[in-house]
Amino acid sequence: MTKYTDQGKQDTRSGFGAGMTELGRTNPNVVALCADLVGSLKIQTFIDENPERFFQVGIAEANMMGIAAGLTIGGKIPFTGTFANFSTGRVYDQIRQSIAYSDKNVKICASHAGLTLGEDGATHQILEDIGMMKMLPGMTVINPCDFNQTKAATMAIAEHEGPVYLRFGRPKVANFTPVDQKFEIGKALMLSEGTDVTIIATGHLVWESLIAAENLEKQGISAEVINIHTIKPLDDEAILASVKKTGCVVTAEEHNYLGGLGESVSRVLASHHPAPQEFVATQDTFGESGTPDQLMEKYGLNNKAIAEAVLKVLKRK
Amino acid sequence: MPNTQELQDLVIQVRRDILRMVHKVNSGHPGGSLGCTEFLVALYNEIMELKDGFDMDGRGEDLFFLSNGHISPVFYSVLARRGYFSVDELNTFRLIDSRLQGHPTTHEGLPGVRIASGSLGQGMSVAIGASLAKKLNGDDHLVYSLHGDGELQEGQNWEAIMYAAGNKVDNLIATIDRNGQQIDGGTEDVLPLGDVSEKFRVFGWDVLEIENGNDLNQVITGLKEAKSRTGKGKPVCVVMTTEMGNGVDFMMHTHAWHGKAPSDEQLETALAQNPETLGDY
To answer: Given an 8 Å threshold on Cβ–Cβ distance, is A74 in contact with B116?
Structure first.
């Protein structure tokens, strides 16, 4: 297996921006909309190079979702950009009726997801967005793990026909996946093979899972790490193949344990191969102000928490 | 002038369709549908430039978006009688396995419908998006939309109204059905809308009024005037006064028929006031 190393810390939102720059140069149908957060979404290059294909809607996310839906009528591929909270909870009904139910080819791109938004606090830290989005029929839900993967995902979703929710974050984190990777929607990625336990992670928690696996190895525990960048459609086969081998699973995500990746994995296991599972996720709570590292430590979303969950689940095998 | 007799016959027939559709399933929204019959008949048969057949992209033709989706009966009838689908299909309105859902949707692939509506206040944003796509595509056709007046209580409209003026979306004609009624009563009692025309004007729209939206000639003249005002840097708003339940005496001057179907006896009375013209489905 490839040994993953950090190629230098970068934010996933910049991966999105880099993907948009590429799309601006290669796909004339791609258009971008933003609700007064151009700097945060890192799309200035796209705007500079394609001013006629950028729509600044102001602080009006509901209108942004509707305009995006309308732009698809005429063949455009709109990418909306704002924080994850304002991309989902604030505009759920607009997404539900004008985009998902109307089957519009809109890409909802959401930055600053989860606790790692940091100091702004709970009003801005959404931990429910994966749940809301995965419940919408026809919606694809993607949560890439680093800069390179977010860039690849941004480019891949332009080729996918149908609504997509693309979730990424604010802080600079390890960039460890290949720079020229091909992103395949719905395909889980095996990062590290193991035999004792399966760790299924998404987003920022993937890198933490790799660190946890390395530390567990020193204790003689062989952990398999799977990167689930696509939460819906979920790669059931990859999950089942791994858990059939290891017999237990830890899921890890920067999201509420209600409605997140963990519950999706539970559904697959309950239907096909029941196995003990532990959830590394927030425990039905709002976040608070703090640095990203402090918050991930306090709410149990780092490699230490993952390793502890592994020890716990192993006892239940 | 167009052959208004043919259009007037169509208006009567569409009224009959609306009444029979909601009566059959004992549900649906006849009041607003009857109030907007002249508007939709004129729009689809006299005003809009339409291609034959239907494709979602709608390039090279005018587009229409119904924001107040509950008046689906009039929309379906006008679409069917314009040839988008068979008028016999009006028989399936609100029934299980039908393409004619309670509120319009693209989900079942009904030709003529480009967006789901029903949850109010979303249509103007969608219409703006479609207008922007037309500009990007170099397509000089127009986008029309219809909104209930009560629907303006939804905040998203005002985001959209601000956007369209600020960004010179001047290939859009948004019509407000000013019938003054909503489910719980008169609009001015439920939540006053005040001077709708003035509100649009101060937001930067070019506004014109149709005093009697149930007078076919006034509707046609008004919409033609609206059309002539497009392409001049401002979105165009038509504030159209209508009578809910128009054409059926006991359904007029009340909000009672917003979402209520007539009984057998009431249907008979209503149909007698609108004798068959082009043939029932």
So the answer is: no
